[in-house]
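BUG: 3D viewer hangs when loading the predicted structure for this chain

Environment: internal workstation, default settings.
Expected: structure renders.
Actual: progress bar stalls at 90%.

Input used:
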Amino acid sequence: MKLVTARQMQAIDRAAADECGLPTLILMENAGRAVAVAVRRHAPQARTVAILAGAGNNGGDGFVAARHLSQHLAVTVFLAAPREKLKGDAALNFQALQAFPVVIREVREDNLTRELEALGRSDLLVDALFGTGLCGPLSRFYINLIAGAQATAIPILAVDIPSGLGADSGTPLGASFRATWTVTMGLPKMGMWAPSAAAFVGEIEVAEIGFPPDLLAEDSLPGHLIGPDLLQWILTPRSSQAHKGSSGTVLVLAGSLPYRGAANLAGIAALRIGAGLSRLGLPRSLCLLNLDKPDELVQWPLPEEDSPALAPAALEMALEEAAEANAVVLGPGLGQDPRTAAFVFAFLRRNRTATVLDADGLNIVASNPAILLETPAPLVLTPHPGEMGRLLAVSTQAIQEDRIGCCLEAAGRYGCVAVLKGFRTVVGDPTGRFYINPTGGPAMATAGMGDILAGAIGGLLAQGATPLDAALLGVYAHGLAGDLAAAEIGKRGILPSDLLPRLPKAMEMG
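Structure tokens produced before the viewer hung:
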């Protein structure tokens, strides 16, 4: 499903009317009806509904919803703008409302306390105050209105986007409702899926209100929300005659003396996501220390120098093994020994097998990221914000302030697929397309989760997925496995290994 900015959504509105002849009054009718249906579904016990409406089209959607709801419930519209400011479709629907059993109250600065008390006696609040067109900071009146309505503690259903939340940024413009549910029209808005928006949007649903499908799938819209509709064509069903050789081989070049578990987690994740064989390329002495590894993993002892770390001595054998594999995972727990760095640079210059570059592989490359342009292998980079900051030579804060822009910059600059990890993981490709992942959450804030993701993406590459498709399905299934673990075990204390048995189920659900 596409993600849009406020300006892109406005362009779709105009195109629907000007190019397709679809009256905007019909779109508003469909939007308001969708809100009314959502109210009845989400709050079946509600008997009284307050609709807080502004003067724009968002308020117009609220007027339509009030008309439909008045046939079943006691409805009060709290109009938070002078009547004379109502124009166009909103004014027409406000006029039509006069013929229905709806109480209309006007909210002003001089009666704000009284009106908030009346609003608070309702069972549910429909927020139809502002839509996606809000771009500047709110006035003191609206800040007080939102804060006072929120303080009533009644459930809130937001129309299109919680009022006060930036449609593109996902941050409050002075104040924002914290909705229980948000019913957004046509397509989800980009800001609703920003990490900062999670506390405000509640449960999101997208209402189909009659936009022509071609407008919603326009190629000029680069943003996407990762979901089953996007993922269903990535992997074909496994043949009844499948065997380990036909399911793909992953070579994991990872681990060091303190972090040998990282290699094990990545290797098992590749198998759990469906790869047929997972080989660990480890320094010879580290293999001897890793005898408690999962039995399903094959260890491949590599020559070492004077310590259990990957070094140039292992290069030729590692390249031979990579040539026999279908995918490589390079970096989890690798360490940053100078000899390991020399190995990584030499390997990248010669390796031709699709590779996931993660963790210390990225930290090593950050000292000379131009190497990424020299490697002949297709690459998927999987940095967390700190690692991305090192790749782009900016602060972690700068990365977090523009996650989409920084992810796309890395993808474009280095000609590869970039996965910026964290809540609402972003995937970007060199063409400028980006994708936001809705799965996963704070329960996954545990060391080692990135090793699982790297292995999962590697396992999908090994099965024939393109780098972009492997990244999309990998981050979605990884996050969904975390959600399943959190639901079954609890929202604190889940381990990376808890995701492993849930990856196959996540793949089925995806």
